[in-house]
Prior knowledge:
Blueprint: H1 3-23, E1 32-36, H2 42-51, E2 55-58, H3 61-67, E3 77-80, H4 89-95, E4 98-102, H5 105-118, E5 124-131, E6 141-142, H6 146-154, E7 159-166, H7 195-217, E8 223-225, H8 232-237, E9 242-245, H9 247-250
Parallel strand pairs: 1-2, 1-9, 2-3, 3-4, 4-5, 5-6, 5-7, 7-8
Helix pairs in contact: 1-2, 4-5
The chain binds pyridoxal-5'-phosphate.
Amino acid sequence: MATTSIRQNLLQIQERIAAATARVGRRPEDITLIGVSKTHPAIAIQEAFQAGVRHFGENRVQEWEVKRVGTNNLSATWHLIGHLQSNKAAKAAKLFHTVDSVDDLVVAQKLDRARAEAGLPANLRVLIEVRVAKEETKSGVEIAALPELAEKVAALPHLDLAGLMCIPPFFGPVGAGLSPSPPVEAGVQPGAVSPADAVRPYFRRLRELRDELRAKLALPLPVLSMGMSHDFEVAIEEGATEVRVGTALFGGRM
Length: 254
Ligand SMILES: *Cc1c(COP(=O)(O)O)cnc(C)c1O
């Protein structure tokens, strides 16, 4: 994708963020845009950085290990947003500033140990990914198991638990109409008339879970990473502080 289109895409995303924050009395500065660069080459990351993006998300440790060679001149924050296997945890703890998809204590313990061994000055930021839709066989900790996992992750000395992340089911772009017969297993709420209505309860649930944990653990937990290209406006209306945007910024993936 040409530089001009990444730049133009970024402007459009910034307008959408501004409109969404304005609707609910929030400020655009309170939203961190994470450019999801998976499958796109290092040159695309360079272009997005030139246009002003400072946070990037990758979903595979190995892909990032190769691509970072082409981006190590950039002073950006690198997020791992994809499911992490425990045999990649040690590497991830050294290659990323934050792992936004922790859903397992063993993986968290490995990240903690590897971060200590790497002798890096700062703790590794982590988010816990929550499976907000039971119907989906996606990654993320079950809601019922979240409090215990959060308490144990928060106690690990080389990790900073900053908040929660989720990937709700896909109902279509929020500006469009709900497809005539959405699959039952997608968990569409009864009475939902648009993709925005359908997805909103999942984002709201993540915020409520964060609020409950905040009280229980007496931790600030300021971060809610939720919302992608097709639904980030709704996520912002429901309290997202970080949105993970791939396609709308970089174009389609191979
Ligand atoms: C790919 C991906 C995104 C970005 O998706 P788009 O629909 O391209 O914006 C966000 N979050 C996660 C976890 C992803 O894997």
